[in-house]
Amino acid sequence: MNSKRFNIGKVITYIFLVIITLISIFPFYWMFVIGSNDTSAINKFPPAFIPGSNFMENAANVFERIDFLQAVLNSFIVSTLVTFSVLFFCSLAGFSFAKMRFKGNKQLFIFVIATMMVPIQLGIIPSYMIISKFGWINDLKAVIVPWAVNAFGVFWMRQYIASAIPDELIDAGKIDGCSNFRIYWNVVVPSVRPAIATLGLITFMQVWNEFLWPLVVLKDTSVHTIQIALRNLNSNYYTDYAMILNGTFLATIPILIVFLLFSKQFIAGLTEGAVKA
Amino acid sequence: MKNLFSFNKGVMVVVGLILFFSLIGCSNNSSGSGDNGGGDKPVKLTLWLWTGTGLEDQIEQFNEENDDIEIDVQTSEFAAVHTNLTTALAAGSGAPDISLVEVKGINKYKTNPDNFYNLFDLGADEIAGDYLDWKWKDAQTPDGQYQLGIPTDIGPIVMAYNKEIFEAAGLPTDRDEVSAMIQTWDDYIELGRTIKAKTGSALSGNPSRFYSVIEGQGDQKYYDKEGNIIVKDNAQLKKAYDSAITLIEEGLTLGLDGNDPEWITALQNGDFATFITPAWDTKKLTENAPDSAGKWDMTSIPGGGNMGGSYLTIPKQSEYPEEAYEFIKWILSPEQQIVTFKKNGNFPSTPSVYNDSAITELKSEYFNNAPVGSLFAKAAEGANFVVEGPDSISIEQSINDAITRVVDGQASPEESWQMALDEIERLQAR
Amino acid sequence: MNVNLKTQTTNKSLKLSKMKGLNQTKRDQIAGYIFISPFFILFSIFGVFPIFFTAYVSLNKWNILGDKTFVGFQNYQMLMSDPSFWKSLGNTFSIWFLSTLPQLFLALILAFILNQVFIKGKDFFRLSVFMPNITSVVAVAIIFGAIFGERYGILNYFLSLVGMDPINWKGGVLGTHIAISTMVMWRWTGYNSIIYLAALQSIPKDLYEAATIDGASKIQQFFKITIPMIRPMIIFTVIVSTIGGMQIFSEPLIFSGAGGGSVKQGLTMTLYLYEEAFTRSNFGYASAIAWLLFIIIVLFSLVNLFITRRINSAD
């Protein structure tokens, strides 16, 4: 519209974006550089900045050392199940906290937030006791069920729904005789697509990259997630950085794909959705 | 009050579901060790190892030769094996049938030996004579009644040195001459001064390593036989500390942490002349600087000694201690230790094999054909038994921090030492 | 379990809506509780026990491997006079302050820019901004180690090119805090801007169009429309990053090691409690740290919530 007036502003904006992009991407690029060199390249001074020719060799080493595909499959199962479950339960709870009138709404919501404030590091031992009581050690359930719904997601969906959906929309649904669940499913969910996409992406990625808890409960190779498997590339006596970063690089590619899949959902959706509904 | 009342239904639902899930939980309550009934099926034993032990082939061989026992290896990182074992012991379930434990870990676990089987009850006294005495005792409670682990490898200490730097400094490069030149640690420091003056290179990369070697050569370390902490009064520690400080103050060390990638950069640059190393750590040179093959040589250090090494243990949670012990006895027998050594370089803890040709004739091309086998064996003989205690790890950390503070210019050597003593004292209060 | 729960809830709410006997308010109430119940069920199974267990442990002198004796509040008393604890508290706040404020502000601006109509290649920029958070911690550790090394670090190499002395980033307090904060900012700015970006989608576009017609500049629009409209989401990010910042663990562990460095320059509270529990076996003491940390986070979150509300409603 105002293209002439904002020309300089636009140029500055682009320069800013490009700088941020370079800073953001560089370590990922460098991961590829080291992953395609031999290990001594990382320790040279100044270090290598151009990809080498050892990528396939390093990748072959990764595949020989760990069951890469099995681990990726496990991670994929865990991340996908957790993501779907988080999206459903958190948006449902978020909707309830944001728009439904029931006694103790506010107090319970504050309680949900407070649960996020408990430091998790020490919870490892008591949580381990519970999981082991259930017989879930070395079982993917141990990393799926406890994560199936989380305070972060509830908080996020509640805030988003509170600010994005006008009460009138809900009331209109009620006057039409819709059940609460129907309002949630037909009115709320379509209107908060960007929030759901964002939560989905964040959840998927966090579960994919999590290691503290899986490390404790998943010890058998057959149930290793990719982050745990990658750790086994790290020999106690000698660290082959080229191989490790190669494996890490390969393990990041699935998240990139997920990002691109979610990507279309990030933008818009809301305004049209809200108006139409 | 009204609030509470209408909240009741929600509570009922929640409570109902909790009960439901806890019932599910209790009904399939199986332990992590696997469910082996009687019958012909082999007993399945889980074994925790960390990465890089090189035992896999032998375990496979064992599984093939034994129909009644099957070893299932679960590998994690070094630190994770120990935290996972601690977690499982604290939680009361989930421990493996056999776990590898490093010597510092053993000293921590020794305070509560009941978490493990007493291997004396399983017949360990019969094989005690096969192992180095000091190494064996390290996995024993102070009263000598309770044996927690059987020794795997040890880490005899030698010195690798960069011949090119020695040559440039006008020093002899022959390993016997070098060894003759450093009869004491003062000689070693003197050597550093010469190298520094002639070439500008540092003597060592990591001052803490120098400290730990000297520290380990005393009769006592942090604890006396009664288990009292004696850091303050042990002259050997202060001597080791002062030696490390001399290196730092005279600029004879780069002051790097040995686990830091920067150390490797320094290695590749050829920025330091010597590396005092236990057997298992020589891979740091051979793997990180493969191009330097032949540039390095190896010789003995004054006094010899040992650093690190591990044990196989059987946690009490295991249902099959006899079978587990049978496996341990086999894989850590002198015959098998020599196999592991040939394959992976883990130096045996069984002195009877030190005359084996695999050791006496082992030469390393990387180290200019040095007879590394006999160098390690000789160093192992110099090692002695030192009492360790439950807090050895954090005491060592406090003293290492003291050295690092001096490197970083955060405190004067005396201040820094005092800070470490204060901290060690504080830790005891908990 | 997921599937079960899902169908259960669905069935129930469908059934409920058909129950004629209940009036609307009552139905809303029950549905409200049912919708939030999954969280509370899961929390009561996996969350409640650890919290109470930790509280109980904190009242004991408890070796993680076995022995325990009840000591009441002795662990808490010892903490009050423990210099390492106060240091870890100071470090945590210092790193939080250095990283969180600039991070959230930058993230908001970035989101605002990425939401502009004229920007081409949005998908690409969005992905790149998010890359740091995807990049695995292992790689981040290696890379930041290489950047902030004293002797052979890239940053000191550039400093030497412009004639400056090398800085010992790892050895000193300020250097460590700057390095860790940089790492935190690098990892989490894009993450927060993705969150803000989602928030911006909830603002009707006609608001901006109207403002543009009225002659409001982009900067005015940012402060007068964007910020007030996404207030709940700003509160969300402030609370979440307060909690995250107070529990910061991976970054200091990567940069300073488990002990936090020689003068404990990188020792944060979570690192300290982890170290106490797993290295020193002081389970009771570590649990006391955990509880104090919990209380500190609650208080600090309330303070931040209060400030955020004030700022947001200032104009």
Automatic annotation (TrEMBL), chain A:
Main location as per UniProt: membrane
Stored SUPFAM superfamilies: MetI-like
The keyword Cell membrane belongs to this UniProt entry's keyword annotation: yes
Segments passing through the bilayer: 12-32, 76-97, 109-131, 143-162, 183-208, 241-262
Record keywords, A-Z: Cell membrane, Membrane, Transmembrane, Transmembrane helix, Transport
InterPro entries the UniProt entry points to: MetI-like, MetI-like_sf
Domain ABC transmembrane type-1: 72-262
One Pfam family hit: BPD_transp_1
Membrane association type: Multi-pass membrane protein
Family: Belongs to the binding-protein-dependent transport system permease family.
Record protein name field: Carbohydrate ABC transporter permease
UniProtKB/TrEMBL annotation, chain B:
Gene3D superfamilies in the record: Periplasmic binding protein-like II (3.40.190.10)
InterPro entries linked: Bact_solute-bd_prot1 (IPR050490), SBP (IPR006059)
Entry protein name: Extracellular solute-binding protein
Organism: Aquibacillus salsiterrae
UniProtKB/TrEMBL annotation, chain C:
Keywords linked to the UniProt accession: Cell membrane, Membrane, Transmembrane, Transmembrane helix, Transport
Domain ABC transmembrane type-1: 89-304
GO biological process: transmembrane transport
Keyword Protein biosynthesis in record: no
Membrane topology qualifier: Multi-pass membrane protein
Gene3D superfamilies documented for this protein: MetI-like (1.10.3720.10)
UniProt cross-references to InterPro entries, sorted A to Z: ABC_transporter_permease, MetI-like, MetI-like_sf
Primary localization: membrane
Protein localization: Cell membrane
One Gene Ontology cellular component annotation held by this UniProt entry: plasma membrane
Presence of keyword Transport: yes
Ranges annotated as spanning the membrane: 30-53, 93-115, 127-147, 167-186, 229-249, 283-307
Family: Belongs to the binding-protein-dependent transport system permease family.
Protein name in UniProt: Sugar ABC transporter permease
Gene source species: Aquibacillus salsiterrae
